[in-house]
Amino acid sequence: MRENLGGRMPRSNDLPAATVVINRFDSYCNNCGIDCSFFEKTHDTNLGYSKDIRDTPGCGIEWKFVASDYIGLEVDKCRPDLEYISRWV
Ligand SMILES: [Zn+2]
Question: Which residue has the higher pLDDT, 6 or 51?
Fold first, then answer.
């Protein structure tokens, strides 16, 4: 789990950088920690409350993995093209 730093989040240390983390109400890129659209192949678009962040392009990493901070969300179905990482047994 990550700590809230006010819009920009530190990445989850138990996941690879090239992971898109899909949650109930937001998604973030685990390379840069910024909210993103999980539909993209690479992190091109920043989302979030801050206009400064939204006006900046994403970090551009190509996501290889998909995961969630929430148990029970079937995020593998959102991105079947990515390798799903389950953080729970
Ligand atoms: Zn990113």
Answer: 51
Place of tokens 């390798």: 83
Note whether residue 87 is domain-resident. no
Q: Against a cut of 0.90, is the pTM above it?
A: no
Closest CA to 29 of 41, 89, 72, 84: 41
Q: Which structural domain range is residue 7 located in?
A: 1-72
Task: Tell me how far the alpha carbon of residue 56 is from its chain's centroid.
Answer: 16
Alpha carbon of 89 to ligand 1 centroid (Å): 27
Q: Is residue 56 part of a domain?
A: yes
- 72: CA distance to ligand 1 center in Å? 24
